[in-house]
Design goal:
Strand order of the largest sheet: 2-1-3-4
Number of domains: 1
Number of helices: 6
CATH architecture: 3-Layer(aba) Sandwich
Helix content: 40-55%
Radius of gyration: 15 Å
Strand content: 15-25%
């Protein structure tokens, strides 16, 4: 029941945040204790977990950007929501004590953490930063932005330790 309420509120927040997002064709799926191994740990490629709560203003401001990123790039990066209000073991495993929190995985290993998402390009830059750092090439070569993001990514990563 709680998951259905969260999804309904998620849809309302998309609608209130931006009318085009209300017509989202593919909503970001949730990740749980039960689905974490199959969706994140035992997979290849980049994955993002967005720890989120309906009562969190910053979460709701970032949600339309995450939704747009997911709709546009779900074929290259999987995105999942982690409902902060549904207390799970996963919160402890991922060290998620507050929201919003974004965790980037590559091949089942957490490689980056972020506290804020300001735009779809912000997500692309974040993934590209870690792709270059870990693989030597951007994950979205046609969407490379400025390098100002690199300092932000390193700051977020350092503060998460």
């Amino acid at each position: 029941m709680r998951k259905h309420v969260a999804m309904a509120l998620f849809c309302v927040s998309l609608f209130l945040g931006s009318i085009p997002h209300a017509m989202a064709t593919k909503l970001i799926p949730f990740v749980t204790d039960a689905t974490f191994p199959e969706k994140i740990l035992n997979t290849k490629g980049f994955k993002i977990i967005s720890a989120w709560a309906i009562w969190c203003p910053s979460c709701n401001e970032a949600l339309p950007h995450m939704q747009t990123f997911y709709e546009t790039h779900h074929d290259k990066v999987d995105v999942f929501l982690l409902d902060f209000d549904v207390r799970q073991q996963l919160h402890k495993v991922l060290n998620v004590n507050s929201v919003p929190r974004y965790i980037l995985f590559l091949d089942g290993v957490a490689v980056g953490r972020k506290r804020t998402i300001k735009s779809e390009q912000d997500v692309i830059d974040w993934v590209n930063f870690y792709a270059v750092k870990l693989t030597g090439a951007p994950h979205f070569p046609d969407l490379v932005s400025n390098t100002a993001f690199i300092e932000d990514a390193e700051e977020d990563q350092d503060s998460a330790k």
